[in-house]
Specification:
Helix content is 30%, strand content 19%. The chain has 240 residues and is an alpha+beta fold. Strands 1, 2, 3, 4, 5, 6, 7 and 8 form an eight-stranded antiparallel sheet that branches.
């Protein structure tokens, strides 16, 4: 880091996808934000897929139902701790069922976390548009194959340079994505994270922190730790 050109560093302190003005240095522990989940997610805990939805009046409950969540459990406000109790097994909050999901709202985004492809996934395209969703971010992990992907869509168009983007190991100080491409905002946000947090060495944590500062992705850490995040099993026979 002592060899970094200060002018080069200032250039990469900006982060937003729409060319916002450069933000001031972060000034806090990145693991207090979205990056808290990066390490466990690499091992598919608490869930394999992290999906986020943004738009006008987007309902996390509506999205969960669209993807196939049990309507009864959504209606009564079932929590993650309730599902653990229902299984009759002392598995803890991180051992989530492969037939369940968690959902909620964090900042501007509704989130839905799950493992396998949910029963109502086929309905999601037109259904999401009808619910006012204009942006989606989908992060997927397969620890056995060391495959981690990012899929970002805005106004029906995928924001990428060549298909679904793989989150890969990269060398600090280098841009992981195409310079000047559609994901260059994420390059800048990652660079900013490196400069603001030189003590953070895990590239996935830096990427997740960059997703927070550039797109505003969040997850309520305490709700997951205490098991109070909204949750549901998939409905028998699939969702709508």
């Amino acid at each position: 880091m002592d060899r970094v050109d200060p002018a080069w560093g200032r250039r990469f302190r900006g982060g937003g996808p729409d060319g916002e003005d450069p933000a001031p240095p972060c000034g806090r522990d990145p693991l207090d934000g979205f990056a808290w989940i990066a390490e466990s997610w690499r091992e598919q805990a608490p869930y394999t897929s992290l999906a986020f939805f943004r738009g006008e009046d987007v309902s996390a409950e509506g999205i969960a139902l669209l993807y196939g969540a049990d309507p009864g459990q959504v209606a009564v406000g079932t929590r993650l701790a309730d599902l653990t109790d229902m299984t009759g097994a002392d598995r803890g909050h991180w051992s989530t069922d492969w037939d369940s999901c968690c959902f909620g709202q964090a900042g501007d985004w509704a989130f839905l976390l799950h493992h396998d492809t949910p029963p109502g996934a086929r309905a999601r395209g037109e259904g999401l548009a009808g619910m006012g969703v204009s942006e989606t971010v989908h992060l997927s992990a397969c620890s056995a194959k060391a495959i981690y992907t990012l899929d970002y869509l805005r106004d029906g168009h995928r924001i990428d340079d060549d298909g679904i983007i793989e989150l890969i190991h990269y060398d600090r100080g280098r841009t992981p994505y195409v310079h000047g491409g559609r994901l260059d905002f994420l390059n800048r946000a990652i660079r900013r994270a490196e400069l603001d947090h030189p003590g953070t060495t895990d590239e996935f944590s830096l990427c997740f922190h960059a997703l927070e500062t550039s797109l505003g992705l969040r997850l309520p850490r305490r709700d997951f730790q205490e098991g109070t995040v909204r949750a549901a099993m998939w409905a028998p026979g699939g969702g709508g």
